[in-house]
Known about the structure:
The protein is mainly α.
Amino acid sequence: MKALSKVYNFLIFAFLYAPILVMIVYSFNADKSRTQFGGFSLRWYTELFHDQVILKSLYISLALALLSALIATIIGTIASVGIHAMRGAPRRAYLAVNNIPVTNPDIVTAISMMILFVFFVTKLNGMEMGFGTLLISHITFNIPYVVLSVLPKLRGLNSNIYEAAQDLGCPPVPAFLKVVIPQISQGIVTGFIMAFTLSLDDFVISYFNSGSTAQTLPVTIYSMTKRPYSPKINALSTLLFLAVMALLLIVNFRRSGDQKKEVHS
């Protein structure tokens, strides 16, 4: 039975990752063919890093992911503290509202935010769809994931530590920054990495809210598929896949490390 289970798991993972493996292999193809491998070459990676459109999209994606993750982490941490302090029905209501963007289809969130931004664009003369609308939309869908990462740490925190710091003469705000924040820092870092990964990988929300002045890397990749095929797509997708996979591995290792510490403690 165990052997059958291993074979089944192998087939599932092979089905999921075989196309990605083929894409990675053909990103080093010297030829432009999608069916024949003409030898190992870094040609498409070289052309990729000389493409100004792709480099600009990469810069926008990294800046957007970093800023949105940072702001969402700050807002999400503060929101987590507020939700943790609630009791009863208000707490359950806020948690339900927080979970809606997580379970809601991305297309619904994207279109609703696009309609909201278009409304403000028509009302305000100086506003236009671009990096600002992208930043707001990414912060919005990142906050719930930060809350879900920080709340478990707050639940496992001994509230007497914070009260003891105040009893010893430490004001509330410094006590929170010096006592509570270090205790929940692992959840905060995990939430930041998760928000950064989701922002870097997002396509649907970015596609509807980017406008014509700022396009993220996934949107640029999609636009490249409408033109004659270029193996630069393989190289770009490979780098994007490896970056997201590395960040997800960091998140998973942190979570497993946190669980081991909780068990030993």
